[in-house]
Specification:
The chain is mainly beta. 29% of the residues are buried. It has one helix and twelve strands. The chain is globular, with a radius of gyration of 16 Å. β8 and β9 form a beta hairpin. Strands 1, 3, 6, 8, 9 and 11 form a six-stranded mixed beta sheet that branches. Strands 2, 4, 5, 7, 10 and 12 form a six-stranded antiparallel beta sheet that branches. It has a single domain (14-169), classed as Jelly Rolls. The protein has one helix spanning 135-141; strands at residues 14-15, 23-26, 32-33, 42-43, 51-53, 59-66, 74-87, 94-100, 107-111, 119-126, 144-150, 158-169.
Length: 171
Amino acid sequence: MSTPTPHHVGAPSLELKLDDKKKMEIKPKDLSIVWGKDNRYWSVPDDGTAAELYQVSWLEVTGCVSKTEPGKEYEVGFKLSFTADAFGWSGSPVYILVKRGKTAKFKGHKFSLDTSKESEEIKAKIDPIDNITTDEAEDENSKVYFGLYEVWRGKWKGGLRIHHAFIQELN
């Protein structure tokens, strides 16, 4: 008998579908959110509206997009806002970590969030990959793994809204 998880499990991988601005938005329900199924910590609506963080000491929100083109540059990011009673973000930078392909190393980008802003967009670039030689390597390297993290400080934080994640082609 399996135990239900307290984590919200999003889509294991979404296929890249760019709009006319060469951008794809990813709804919060399609992201994996640690503690996301526990309503003491998060609200993750099924209707595609913003996920709201009530309180956590471990922020981890991840996603995966497949069918990117290895020779192209992309950036991933998150559209965020804060509630009026947001707390715990001062001195607790968040990181976007990204990698292309399962065996690649994550690259990190550090951000200090400003809770006084109405909304904020943070993003990180993904470099192209050259010299893909097999179909299997090409398929694996078409996947972009990304996440939003603040797991190192152990400080309680809350009042964050995640409107969507996105991936955008740069070239």
